[in-house]
């Protein structure tokens, strides 16, 4: 069963349309014949602008693959993906790179920063690469929001894990991308540091109107989102608005139980 | 056993990363074995040639020396033909053949082109006799009969497109004559490249030697059962010790010594360059193993945690090195044989035929190759192996995403600076030295110390120089340039070692180019200052200036005067201090005082050409307590003894003909019989005022018939010196290219391994929007910066060495320092290009990396 989760194409905050990214009938398969493995099975999904969306699911459910495809890091086998009105499926590497550079922000689970650059240089790197001047006022605001003002000259190895992830958040925010994709951004952090980072992500949605998509398997992290999408066996099987950690955990347990029965 | 298994697995798992190190070992070993195989084969070829051309016992004139000697002086030592009967009567002699063989002859075709080899091999004119069958067959035509017939070796005929019926002109010392080719000979063994012309015996005696009834040697064949040594003894007993009697073995040995000393120089020079390449290769291997160990830190920590001893960890790395050494050396030995064959083919094109049929691989050759390859690899891997052993078990637990950046230590800085300072002091001492021997010791010491010092502080210099280079060059490339700079700086030890490898080769290039160019500049200056002659006539191939050539020169129009210059060899000079010195004298005409204005410290140079007068150089006079007005006793070789008056003391402050002892040719002729006075070594001529052009044209026209001698005016002579030094430098650069290639492989190696090491960073940068092109540019810039770092250090160091060497050689007349900026700048720019080329493959690989895989890499 494929659940189409669509949102009306109007309204929302500060964008061209209410939908920041769309996936239409997206299939991602590896191998062929007997060994063919389907990671994404005709997925349709709309990512609402100005919202914090979490993607959850058990290991191997295709949640990371979905995020990679939406972000233009991975190619799809069939189907279409749009960032705003731009179809990114079928774009050449050069265009895709430009798209990632100018319109998308990333936060990975670990190893987000270049060890040779200091915190500030890491934050402005995407703009430097593009040859754009960072917007000073915006940069200051972002840096202040993530609480890094005193540490901008530090190299990554002089920062704690939490601080490093906050630099990564600041980098993602600084270039004002249309969407930020996070791949378990708090997966390597203890709960306090994780809460800090998630708090900043939440605030950037509330205060800066940022669109964020985050893959996680942590119900507590998912609870920071406006909406949670559940993936299983490459399909979107459920969704939840205004989640809490308890509700998410319960829903997960029920999937788990169902998974075990079938 | 398990240690060995681990090493094997690691070795094969990382064979890609080992590839360049293996190539470095391969190249060095190939160069060493190639040199050995080539020289051994060449030696074998000459051995066979000498063995096949030498009779059982030969009898020559007592004074017969090396062939080079008579070729230049034009005076051929002979044995009288009437002794043949005596020799025939000696017990045990089967036959005696009178042989005539000389290298004083020049053979030209109808276009006046020398048909002799251009490779430096001789042109030999010989009489056709029974002994020739030992080495050649008549392959077409017939043997020469009468003064107008000659035979020629088929190789030369083929190379110079000559055939039976063509006319040749033979320019011999007694005079020239024409003869038709009537037959061709083919060698039974490999002829390495000599041109051989055969006449009949009578023609050889009359036209080549100018004396009927004499030979240059007797070739004796022993009766069966009589040993060569026995025969020699009997011959000496029969004819007395007034002759040089040699067995086949002795003749072969003598010939081998002649050619062998040349081959030895070549062999040791090539081995020296191979040694430099080996040294450079060490840096590459050290870097490879350092990086492998760094990447494997966690794995090694785990091995330590579960109970491996330091020694075992150490050993795993060394066994990997051993495998690398064995693989590299074995391939290198095979490559070396290939290289030797290639070298023979190349030499074949240049006229030196070495047959590959006789390819000689002595048992020692592969052993030497294997030992060099393995020992060098093990030494190189030792420091990284020790570092691996020191990794704590805690490393397994630490999250080492990337290996920690190596910090250049303080001890290193102190040691490096001390070495460099000591080296600089030695260089300064060398520059200020007033004794050549002492100075060259300081120079050697200074070169080694500054080189080692620079290698030690390389990592520190890397930080400094890369920053400066980045500020100048990388700035224009914006953030990509900045990241390239940071990457080059992140492991100064690695960058330092990579740059140092390049530094070594380029330092030698810079040093030699400075010395070479100073040599040309100094000689040109000296030529301007002290040579008054307008024209210099000499043979480039060591052929005598015959009397016909002298006449041709004298017949040129517009000449004011001509000075003959003779080299009087091996005169015994007894000085007032009672000591006797054997030295060569410079005999000439009084006009030479104008042509070659050697400054005099006491007296006037012209006085040296007075009757029974001689000049002595300052240093010699001082050493032997001789002063102006003293008498020295001179015993001329082949002549009488004379008492000569020291008429002038010349200055040693000259580089042209420094230390020459001048006297008049007429003085020599008074004590030496006419047939023992050597031919001119050189002739100097001055034009009448305003007729330089006409005189030069006239001289050229007069000498057109004699291709073995060349006339040059000062401009052309300077050009000749420049060309000769240029050729020598090019040869050396060519040999240094090996070391530079290995260093460039080192740059490729460092970048390739860095790209592997930075896979995740590359993925991250690509994810956040660095384009492929920017990625490739970043790696190229890093490579360029490393290459330029090496170039800057090398060129700086080399110019320092070169300038010091020039200051030292100023004692020997190298007075002008000339820095060849075009060469230096070309090398610098070339290094940037080399950096770009070195980055091609690593940049391509980095650009092609799949973003997702790169991010996922642990």
Automatic annotation (TrEMBL), chain A:
Lineage summary: Bacteria, Bacillati, Actinomycetota, Actinomycetes, Kitasatosporales
Protein name from the UniProt record: ABC transporter ATP-binding protein
Keywords, alphabetical: ATP-binding, Nucleotide-binding, Transport
SMART domains: AAA
Cross-referenced InterPro entries: AAA+_ATPase, ABC_transporter-like_ATP-bd, ABC_transporter-like_CS, ABC_transpr_LolD-like, MacB-like_ATP-bd, P-loop_NTPase
Pfam families reported for this sequence: ABC_tran
GO cellular component labels: membrane protein complex; plasma membrane
Claim: Transport is one of the keywords in the record: yes
Limits of the ABC transporter domain: 21-261
Keyword hit for Transport: yes
Organism, scientific name: Streptomyces sparsogenes DSM 40356
GO molecular function, one term: ATP hydrolysis activity
UniProtKB/TrEMBL annotation, chain B:
Record InterPro entries: ABC3_permease_C, MacB_PCD, Macrolide_Exporter_MacB
Pfam families: FtsX (PF02687), MacB_PCD (PF12704)
Species lineage: Bacteria, Bacillati, Actinomycetota, Actinomycetes, Kitasatosporales
A single Gene Ontology CC term: plasma membrane
Domain of life: Bacteria
Domain MacB-like periplasmic core: 19-237
Similarity field: Belongs to the ABC-4 integral membrane protein family.
Record's bilayer topology term: Multi-pass membrane protein
Record's keyword terms, sorted: Cell membrane, Membrane, Transmembrane, Transmembrane helix
Sample GO molecular function, one term: transmembrane transporter activity
Sequence ranges assigned to domain ABC3 transporter permease C-terminal in this UniProt record: 273-393, 735-850
Protein name: ABC transport system integral membrane protein
Transmembrane residue ranges: 268-294, 317-344, 364-385, 413-431, 443-476, 497-521, 731-756, 781-801, 821-844
Species of origin: Streptomyces sparsogenes DSM 40356
Compartment(s): Cell membrane
């Amino acid at each position: 069963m494929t659940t189409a989760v669509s949102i009306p194409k109007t309204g929302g905050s500060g964008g061209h349309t209410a939908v920041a990214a769309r996936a239409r009938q997206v299939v991602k398969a590896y191998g062929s014949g007997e060994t063919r493995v389907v990671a994404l099975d005709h997925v349709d999904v709309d990512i609402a602008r100005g919202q914090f969306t979490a993607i959850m699911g058990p290991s191997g459910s295709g949640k990371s693959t979905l995020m990679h495809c939406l972000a233009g890091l991975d190619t799809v086998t069939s189907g279409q993906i749009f960032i705003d009105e731009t179809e990114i499926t079928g774009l050449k590497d050069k265009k895709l790179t430009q798209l990632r550079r100018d319109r998308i922000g990333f936060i990975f689970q670990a190893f987000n920063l270049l060890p040779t650059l200091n915190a500030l240089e890491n934050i402005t790197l995407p703009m430097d690469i593009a040859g754009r001047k960072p917007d000073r006022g915006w940069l200051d605001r972002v840096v202040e929001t993530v609480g890094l003002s005193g540490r901008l000259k530090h190299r990554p190895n002089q920062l704690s894990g939490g601080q490093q992830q906050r630099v990564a958040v600041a980098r993602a925010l600084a270039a004002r991308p249309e969407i930020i994709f996070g791949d378990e951004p708090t997966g390597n952090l203890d709960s306090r540091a994780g809460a800090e980072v998630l708090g900043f992500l939440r605030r950037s949605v509330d205060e800066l109107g940022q669109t964020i998509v985050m893959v996680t398997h942590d119900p507590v992290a998912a609870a920071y989102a406006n909406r949670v999408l559940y993936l299983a066996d490459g399909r979107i099987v459920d969704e939840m608005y205004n989640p809490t950690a308890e509700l998410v955990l319960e829903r997960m347990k029920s999937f788990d139980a169902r998974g075990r029965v079938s | 056993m398990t240690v060995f298994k681990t090493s094997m697995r690691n070795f094969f798992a990382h064979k890609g990363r080992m590839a360049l190190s293996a190539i470095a070992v391969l190249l060095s070993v190939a160069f060493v074995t190639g040199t050995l195989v080539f020289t051994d084969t060449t030696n074998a070829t000459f051995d066979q040639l000498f063995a096949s051309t030498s009779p059982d016992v030969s009898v020559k004139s007592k004074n017969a020396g090396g062939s080079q000697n008579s070729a230049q002086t034009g005076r051929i030592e002979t044995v009288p033909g009437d002794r043949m009967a005596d020799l025939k009567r000696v017990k045990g002699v089967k036959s005696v053949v009178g042989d005539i063989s000389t290298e004083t002859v020049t053979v030209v075709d109808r276009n006046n082109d020398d048909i002799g080899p251009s490779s430096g091999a001789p042109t030999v004119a010989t009489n056709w006799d029974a002994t020739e069958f030992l080495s050649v067959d008549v392959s077409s035509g017939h043997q020469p009969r009468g003064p107008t017939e000659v035979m020629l070796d088929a190789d030369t005929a083929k190379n110079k497109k000559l055939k039976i019926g063509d006319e040749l002109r033979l320019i011999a010392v007694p005079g020239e004559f024409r003869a038709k080719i009537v037959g061709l000979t083919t060698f039974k063994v490999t002829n390495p490249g000599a041109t051989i012309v055969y006449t009949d015996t009578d023609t050889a005696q009359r036209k080549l030697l100018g004396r009927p009834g004499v030979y240059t040697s007797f070739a004796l064949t022993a009766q069966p059962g009589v040993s060569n040594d026995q025969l020699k003894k009997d011959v000496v007993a029969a004819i007395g010790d007034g002759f040089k009697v040699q067995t086949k073995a002795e003749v072969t040995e003598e010939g081998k010594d002649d050619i062998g000393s040349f081959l030895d120089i070549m062999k040791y020079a090539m081995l020296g360059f191979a040694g430099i390449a080996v040294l450079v290769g060490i840096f590459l291997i050290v870097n490879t193993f350092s990086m492998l160990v760094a990447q494997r830190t966690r794995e090694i920590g785990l091995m330590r945690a579960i109970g491996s001893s330091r020694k075992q960890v150490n050993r795993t790395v060394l066994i990997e090195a051993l495998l690398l050494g064995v693989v590299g050396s074995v391939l290198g030995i095979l490559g070396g044989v290939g290289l030797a064959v290639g070298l023979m083919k190349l030499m074949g094109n240049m006229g030196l035929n070495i047959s590959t049929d006789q390819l000689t691989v002595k048992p020692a050759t592969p052993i030497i190759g294997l030992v060099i390859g393995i020992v060098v690899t093990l030494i190189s891997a030792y420091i990284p192996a020790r570092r691996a052993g020191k990794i704590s078990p805690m490393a397994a637990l630490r999250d080492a995403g990337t290996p920690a950046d190596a910090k250049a230590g303080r001890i290193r800085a102190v040691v490096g600076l001390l070495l460099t300072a000591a080296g600089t002091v030695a260089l300064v001492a060398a520059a200020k030295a007033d004794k050549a021997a002492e100075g060259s010791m300081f120079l050697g010491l200074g070169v080694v110390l500054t080189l080692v010092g620079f290698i030690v502080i390389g990592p520190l210099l890397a930080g400094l120089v890369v920053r400066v280079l980045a500020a100048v060059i990388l700035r224009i490339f914006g953030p990509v340039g900045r990241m390239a700079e940071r990457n080059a700086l992140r492991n100064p030890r690695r960058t330092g070692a990579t740059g140092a490898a390049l530094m070594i080769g380029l330092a030698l290039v810079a040093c030699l180019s400075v010395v070479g160019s100073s040599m040309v500049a100094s000689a040109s200056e000296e030529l301007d200052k002290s040579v008054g002659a307008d024209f210099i006539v000499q043979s480039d191939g060591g052929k005598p200036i015959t009397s016909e050539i002298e006449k041709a020169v004298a017949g040129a129009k517009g000449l004011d005067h001509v000075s003959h210059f003779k080299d009087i060899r091996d005169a015994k000079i007894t000085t007032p201090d009672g000591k006797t010195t054997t030295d060569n004298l410079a005999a000439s005409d009084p006009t030479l005082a104008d042509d070659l204005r050697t400054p005099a410290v006491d007296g006037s140079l012209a006085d040296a050409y007075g009757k029974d007068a001689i000049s002595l150089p300052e240093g010699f006079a001082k050493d032997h307590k001789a002063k102006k007005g003293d008498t020295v006793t001179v015993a001329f070789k082949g002549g009488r003894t004379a008492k000569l008056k020291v008429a002038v003391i010349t200055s040693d402050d000259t580089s042209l003909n420094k230390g020459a002892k001048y006297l008049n040719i007429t003085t020599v002729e008074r004590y030496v019989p006419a047939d023992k006075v050597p031919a001119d070594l050189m002739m100097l001529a001055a034009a009448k005022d305003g007729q330089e052009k006409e005189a030069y044209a006239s001289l050229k026209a007069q000498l057109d018939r004699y291709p073995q001698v060349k006339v040059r005016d000062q401009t052309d002579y300077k050009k000749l010196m420049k060309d000769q030094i240029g050729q020598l430098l090019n040869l050396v650069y060519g040999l240094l290219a090996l070391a530079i290639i290995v260093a460039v492989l080192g740059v490729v190696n460092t970048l390739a391994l860095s790209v592997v090491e930075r896979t995740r960073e590359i993925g991250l940068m690509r994810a956040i929007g660095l384009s492929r092109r920017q990625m490739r540019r970043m790696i190229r810039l890093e490579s360029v910066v490393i290459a330029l770092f090496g170039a800057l250090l090398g060129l700086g160091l080399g110019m320092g060495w070169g300038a010091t060497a020039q200051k030292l050689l100023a004692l020997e007349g190298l007075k002008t320092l000339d820095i060849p900026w075009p060469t230096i700048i070309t090398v610098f720019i070339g290094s940037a290009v080399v950096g770009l080329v070195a980055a091609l493959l690593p940049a391509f690989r980095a650009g092609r990396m799949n973003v997702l895989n790169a991010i996922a890499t642990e």
